[in-house]
Amino acid sequence: MSKWLAEYAWLPERAEPTRDVLIEVVDGRFTAVTPLGHGGSPTAGVEVLGDAVRLPGLTLPGLANAHSHAFHRALRGRTHDGRGDFWSWRSLMYAIATRLDPDSYLALARATYAEMALAGITCVGEFHYLHHGPGGTPYADPNAMSDALVEAAAHAGIRLTLLDTAYLAGGVDGTPLAGPQRRFGDGDALRWAERVDAFRPSDDHVRLGAAIHSVRAVPAEQLATVAGWADRNGLPLHVHLSEQPAENDACRAVHGCTPTRLLSDHGVLGRHTTAVHATHPTAADVALLGESRTGVCLCPTTERDLADGIGPARRMADAGSPLSLGSDSHAVVDLFEEARAVELDERLRTRARGHFSPAALLTAATVGGHAALGWGDAGRLAVGQRADLVTVRLDSARTAGVPPVGAFFAATAADVTHVMVDGRPVVADGRHLTVDVATEMADAVAAVTA
Ligand SMILES: [Zn+2]
Q1: What's the CA angle centered on 244, arms 184 and 209, to 5 degrees?
Q2: Ligand 1 centroid, distance to 42 Cα (angstroms)
Q3: pTM score above 0.90
C-alpha cells in the first residue's frame, strides 16, 4: 500500500478543492480517499499518518487527452509560412507523414507521450490513421505502426486508447486516396475491420477503439460498417466533425445534408461516440448530437492555431453532449490551457463571462475524457478508481497567491510536479522518471524534418 497526503485535492462533485486529504492506494486503485479535517492546519494530520508522502499544492485526478495525432508534434512552430491556413498546414503534415516508419514513429510518439505525462496527462486517445508503408503497401505486420504507439505509451508511462481510424477516400465525393494519403487507406471498411480484428493488444495500459476520420474520408455507404464494428465490440467510436465550413459545404453538395445529419442517418451517433471539434454545427446538428448523447471533444488550442473558429461549447453541453478535451495537433500540450480556453473562447464570442465553472472544466479534462476513451474507472479521486494523481504546485511565479479553485485559470503544464498512473509514479519534482523528454523530442523531430 502507498499513502499520500494532498495539501489540497479535488474530490468528485465538489465545487472546489478540499484541504488535507489522505489518499491510499493498493494494486493501482484508490482504497481510501479521506478528508482529514475542517480547515485546520495543513500539517495537523501528519503525526498520525506515519509514512504518508506529502503532496504540496493541488492534487487532481489524472487528466485525459481525448484527441491526439502523435506525429503532428513534429510540426510545432513550423507551419507559419505564407498564410498558414488549415489546408497549407495539412500539406506540411503530409510531408512529415511520408517520412515516418515504425521506428521513427515510436521515437516521436514516445517523446510526445512523455511530454504529455509531464503535463499531467495520464491517458491519451490516439486517432491513428498512419497505417501502412510508403505508397500504401502494408508492412509485414499490417499493424506495425499501431504496435509502435502501444510501445511508446508504455515507455512514457501513460495509458492509451488506440482509436484505429478508417481513412478510405480523399473527399466527400469518394475521390480515391492519392499521394501521401495512400498510407492511410485499407481499401474499404471491411478490410479496415479485418486488419483491426487482427490487432488485439493485451497490455494493461492499452485499449482499442475505432474512428471514422471524417465524412471526407469514409464514403457514406461504409459509415455503418465502421460504426457497427465498434458497436459489436463495445468500443468507443470517434469522428472528426465539421472542423471546417468547407466540409459542411462539400457534404451538402454531395449528400444534400450536413455531416452531422449524414452520420446520424448511418447510425454513427450515440453515447459511445465522440465528435471531435464540432466547430461549425447548425442548430439542428447541435440537437442531433445532444439528443443522441454523442460526446464532443473540443481542441481549442489547435482550433485557434488552424484558424478553424469557435465551436458552440455551451450550447452543445446544454443540448446533452458530454464534453472532453484534446491537444490534437500538439501546437500546445497543456490541458489547463485547453480547459480555460473553453470558457475564454465562449467569452470572446458572447462578450459575457461565466459559462463554465472551474469544476465543469475539471470534469471535461478528467472524467469526461476518460469516459470518451472507454475508461469508465478513471478520472475521479474516489475509492475503486484507477490510482491516477496529478499534483500542481501553488507556489510558482504563475500560481503563487492563487486560490486552489482558480488553478485552471492560472496554472500551466509546467506547474505539474508529480504524476502517478495506475499507482506508479511517472513524474516527480517536475521530471519524467524514465524519459529525457527534451533531448528525445529534439532527436525525434530532427529525424523526420531534417
Ligand atoms: Zn484531429
Answers
A1: 45
A2: 43
A3: yes
